[in-house]
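User: quick one
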Amino acid sequence: MKKRTAKQATKKTKYIFVVGGVMSGVGKGVASSSIAKILQARGLSVTALKIDPYINVDAGTMNPTEHGEVFVLKDGLETDQDMGNYERFLGTDMPAINYMTTGSVYQSVIRKERNLEYGGHNVEVVPHIPLEVISRIKHAAKKSAADVALIEIGGTVGEYQNILFLEAVRMLKTEQPEDVAVVMVSYLPVPGSIGEMKTKPTQTAARLLNSAGVFADFILARAPVPVDKKRKEKIARFCNVLPENVISAPDVDSIYDVPLRYEAEKLSSKICDLLSLRCRTTSDLSRWKRFVTSSKTGKDTVKIAVVGKYFNSGDFVLSDVYISVLEAIKYSSYKLGLKPEISYVSSLDFEDKKQLKRLKEFDGILVPGGFGTTGITGKLNVIEYARKNKIPYFGICYGMQLAVLEYAKNKLRMKDVSTAEINPDAKHLVIDIMPEQKEKIAQSDMGGTMRLGAYPAHLSTGSIVKSAYHQAEITERHRHRYEVNPAYIMKLQEGGLVFSGQSPDRRLMEAVELPREEHPFFVGVQFHPELQARPLDPHPLFTAFVKAAYEAK
Ligand code: GLN
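Assistant: Done. Structure below.
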């Protein structure tokens, strides 16, 4: 037998579960990412998992207005936007095993049962579902060689749908009590009518958590303002936690301040002590701090319009749908020393061309990914306006496909031209379905059938995209069903459009642009560069776009 080194012998993964109390939407994803970040800054290897309580097997079939952005991992899994937060905060790619839903867990258990993997035993919701959850968590931790696996459980305690996940926490904690910590992210309202911070909802949430056999080690007290000593003591007494483990987490200007806030309360040391984690005595957040400073010091503004259609939810405007795009614009702006002013505008507003002059105030226009026919006329009008008025334009996925369509229609004056997604019967389908997708759609088997995940592309010499990346070979993540139709490439090229990025076999068009002499920046990409933009490593294409927008001001 090989001799083990001291490090191997002592290395044992620790598990930190993050659950929500009181209500959703108080930043559990950011809290999880920030805890992961401060532990990483202590020299630990950290991975992060998200558990979504939905029956959907992945996030690909969820409407973004209900669920937010679909974040595509490198290996192609369509996941929750929190996975994007983890990648951005930690600066690492997360593998597919780090995301699970109720649907995917049941699917595995049923597949194993069909495969006789339970050896003839009765397969039951408990323990087999929680055991599957635990085995996935352990597998993910092992795959990432993690000292710490942070697992965020979607929803809030007390909901039926996350009971089985809490059961997994309980079982793992019973099995390995020294290796498991539980953090409850709670909310402390300050009702306007009384002006006092109330702890009761948090007490109730703690009790609900306890009734599932799980006890919080830390309570992150989200609130509009810092939590005072008196309330910390009250929460500690009623919720069974140490007063020093009630961490004040007030609203902050930027989510990137959160790790620094936690460190101000020495959270990483408290976690390391509780779990006997061997880590560096000092925390290295210096690059992170520089980034946070750059996010606050930009003087000149750059105004970007993001033209989408998934913004409305009743009377409220949702920006979460395009969160990675928004963050990517911010990182590049900060890098350039600029202050971004990002406006979300609904493409539906521009079906009437008279509205287009509203776009004059913007330095750059971005049309992000999208699906279906709603809002398309408006998007095409916006693209035409950006092209003709030389406003820097960046089209992502659908934003590229529509730029090609707009060009064919308005510049080349092609009649009866469309994309198969809008009008499959049009005579000229400049954007068409990929052959390998046709069959799947015919079987109405839509889930997970797009071209998903990271693929390489080659960029042409002399192009805007190549000069942005400073390299010819790139790898970017995809999520689409349709493609530029090879039958029209010659015609479009002869008409002045430049296909500046292609798949290695040259079959698929990955990037399109107009020559610099004709337009300061008119670029469309079939992939989703926003998915790889990171605070400490802004995406070169976004940087090129923001720079062009600023210079065109
Ligand atoms: N709807 C287009 C397609 O499926 C674009 C997808 C996207 O923008 N993500 O190809």
